[in-house]
Amino acid sequence: MPVALLHTVASMRENLLLQDIQTLRARVQQRIAGDIIRDGLDTENETVIKLLNALLPIELVCAKRYSRYQFLHADTKHKSNVDELEAHSDQEQRHIALIAGRISALGGLPDFSLEGLASACATYCMDGKALVDLIKEDIVAECIAMDVYREAIRYLEDRDPTTTEMMTGILRDEELHTDEMAALLEQLPV
What's the pLDDT at 110? Predict the structure, then answer.
């Protein structure tokens, strides 16, 4: 990734979304600790289920974001770019299935409520239409998602190796998406 793009991404994250990252982290930490204590839940599976249900909206919004970009630019001359966006949307759908499947395996119910989705949309959706702007926003959103996954992995690392392994795989995918979007951005006219 070129140095200028790295500085741009870093600047965008620091200047535009630092508060959002802190809010997301606080929300995840609250769901991990506060809500569980208040609800009287004390088993490790219930903790993991709550954490995974907090991650579902992030993946749902990521999938919808890629689909939106794909359809906004379906008729452009950048067919290979649209195909890449479709592949990313499909991969985000697989992440949703992995997380929901793990929640079910732990004895929980995946929470696809609109409330969680609405709170994630406020951070991850963009109203723009220019592919360059959408990709820049996507890079920022992917960086936020990676931060949330890293924190969740640190929390679960010694508590639930199976879930940690699953989330580590998802994190690798998100890192790859970020790299691919940065490469795509370099190919597009500014």
Answer: 94
